[in-house]
Amino acid sequence: MKTQLSLVTIVALFVAASWISPVDTQKSISGISLKKQNSFAPDFSFFRTHRQGRGVTATWGLSSNGSVTGFVVQRTYEDPNDQYASWDNICAMPCGPGKSFKHEDESVSPGFISYRVIAYLQYGGSVMSMISTEHVVSH
């Protein structure tokens, strides 16, 4: 009985995994190469921040945004590598048709400010950018 239940569970997991998480595949038909893109897992091509006027501007780009529904830009004045650091959501925006995006944070206080972007995916889940830190001396 346990063996049958285990077998059914393994088959169900395999079917579910193959249905929800497609993999990049490459096929050749009559010498023409076709590649199926994995649209569920976009990558951040870049994420940068820089001082601009009295604030900080964050810019980022995606390799593909087909499955991204929106973004949340977050910042912290704490150690960004501390798992208990408090991150504030400073902007939520939908994903447009482009591959690069920007947010200007005009309400900054002096100190070290770290930023990151979370891309929310159409079928659940999210992808997080790397962290970028700016040093704001004064207004």
Describe the structure.
It is built from one helix and ten strands, in the order H-E-E-E-E-E-E-E-E-E-E. With 139 residues, the protein is mainly beta. It folds into two domains: 35 residues, no CATH class; 93 residues, Immunoglobulins (Immunoglobulin-like, Sandwich), CATH 2.60.40. The N and C termini lie far apart (70 Å). About 21% of the residues have low confidence. 14% of the residues lie in helices and 49% in strands. Strands 5, 6, 8, 9 and 10 form a five-stranded antiparallel β-sheet that branches. It has a three-stranded antiparallel β-sheet with strand order 3-4-7, with no helix packed on it.
CATH architect. name of the largest domain: Sandwich
Tally of strands: 10
Low-confidence stretches: 11-39
Q: Percent helix among the residues?
A: 10-25%
CATH-level-4 superfamily name of the largest domain: Immunoglobulins
In short:
Helix content is 14%, strand content 49%. By secondary structure, the chain is mostly beta strands. It is globular.
